[in-house]
Amino acid sequence: MAGLPCKLIAQVAFKAGATCFITSWLRSLNIWPNVTPGKIQACDLHQGNYGTDGSVIQWKYTLDGKAQTAKQLLHDIDETKKQIKFKMLEGDLVELYKNMIITVHVETKGGVDFIIWTIDYELINADNPHPLSLLNWTIEFTKDMEAHISDKEY
Predict the structure, then answer these.
(1) Which residues form the Bet v I/Major latex protein domain (predicted)?
(2) For residue range 53-95, what is the model confidence (pLDDT) as tens digits?
(3) How confident is the model over 132-143, as a mean pLDDT?
(4) Of 23, 97, 136, 145, which has the fewest CB atoms closer than 10 Å, so is most exposed?
(5) Are 55 and 71 in contact (CB under 8 A)?
């Protein structure tokens, strides 16, 4: 499987509303360390502006109980489609995966908003695990976001 494109997808119903979800990502990235300190410890802007195409964000986060870092390029941001892509540039995950892109977007089906996380990647080594723990992290993070913003206006 090393070198072959792989994809993991998670879909989570989101009662707080799609607009709130996307707006919180585009306008309020820097609040997440305060809201989810067990998952995200820092979100520092390295280039551009929060929530704009071409901006570069440095994250400090916890995955599987371990401190991790990631530097990501935000691109293909589309507020109409309610989509953001994060291209992994540096960090712990780059040691295991290449060409990793995490896409988050919202779809509404039957009047219900769903947050859909897609992780595209290639294993550097066939013995490396698929990033299932990262996918689970996105699901739990989405639930944390929903709990936080359900009482807020974005």
Answers:
(1) 3-152
(2) 999 999 999 999 999 999 999 999 998 889 999 999 999 999 9
(3) 96
(4) 136
(5) no
Residue 96, judged by CB atoms within 10 A of its CB (0-12, 13-18, 19+), counts as middle
Over 60: is that where the pLDDT of 10 sits? yes
What is the pTM assigned to this prediction? 0.92
Strand pairing class (56-63; 112-123): unpaired
